[in-house]
Amino acid sequence: MAxxxxxxxxxxxxxxxxxxxILGYSHPPNAYICDAEYAxxxxxxxxxxxxxxxxxxxxFFKFYDxxxxxxxxxxxxxxxxxxxxxxxxxxxxxxxxxxxxxxxEERLQELIKDAPQDELEDAMQRVLATIMEISGTSTKDFGxxxxxxxxxxxxxxxxxxxxVYGKKENSQxxxxxxxxxxxxxxxxxxxxxANDAMKGKRWRFKxxxxxxxxxxxxxxxxxxxxxxxxSGRTIKAEFEPVKKWQEIGSEYDPQTKIKPKGWVRITAKxxxxxxxxxxxSIYGIKPTEVNSGPAExxxxxxxxxxxxxxxxxxxxxxxxxxxxxLEEVAGPKGSFYQITxxxxxxxxxxxxxxxx
Length: 356
Fold this sequence. Notes:
Layout: E1 11-13, E2 18-22, E3 31-40, E4 52-55, E5 58-62, H1 67-75, E6 80-83, E7 88-94, E8 100-102, H2 104-112, H3 119-135, E9 142-144, H4 147-150, E10 160-165, H5 167-182, E11 188-190, H6 210-220, E12 223-228, E13 233-242, E14 257-275, E15 281-292, E16 300-305, E17 319-331, E18 334-341, E19 351-354
Parallel strand pairs: 10-13, 16-18
Antiparallel strand pairs: 1-2, 1-8, 2-3, 3-5, 3-7, 4-5, 6-7, 9-10, 11-12, 12-13, 14-15, 14-17, 15-16, 17-18, 17-19
Helix pairs in contact: 3-5
């Protein structure tokens, strides 16, 4: 399947029954850096009660944390590609190995062209219609991800997972959600409106508290709950940001090398949050204090995060703290420093948060 054109959150199915999700917008030629999202029950089974995905007469299991990465590295080395800029191996796929590419915007159009086939599809269409009416967006601005993209959603248990394409469109949707959350009769609420939103869930971050997480999540607005009177259940409804094609620019350049310089924690001011809602989330910063780590951290010009937790995390002019890996990005036209948050042995020591 040559000459693919894929972007963040597009799906890939392999011959073995692995389901990958495209990660970000910068990839090696003729290959894609991915995250392992699901695996067919024929090749992988999980004891995690959250993991099973059944629908359309098929069963898949969702990977959590880094278990997908470990599973693929151990069992399917052909899905390891070399990242020349980092000089490390990462999970990814070469175009010839792609059995099927699944695009969220195309799947959405398939779902809405006909009458809904089950109660979840029905609820999704009603949620989408409400959001479009209030935000002034259209169906071309949306896609579906998660189990609904892959056709194994469960009508009674799965969530409504929508993508919103474009910076302007994401702002419009967030404003619409803000209005809906204020209207008690609308049936929409902020998933993180209550301080006990994380009650009963395991928390592993060491320098980022549950209360801090809930506070940041609440103001993002993209994590909602929909009180569906027809099905009689409360459905999680997410609205994840993805860039439009014309907003995408690849940073992948084999002549540029990314060199780790050490673990750092700094205090800084946010100078540019325009790419904060996307993956990777990129924030322009001006450091004000190096709290720990190499002194070169004072020269860092941005934070780049591949972690879902820190999408749309901080805003322009806010004072922030960040802890992660300091990197020097050196290319033909010069070099700069960045702080990166990503999968690593010290994953749960990383954080990005406002500093009050």
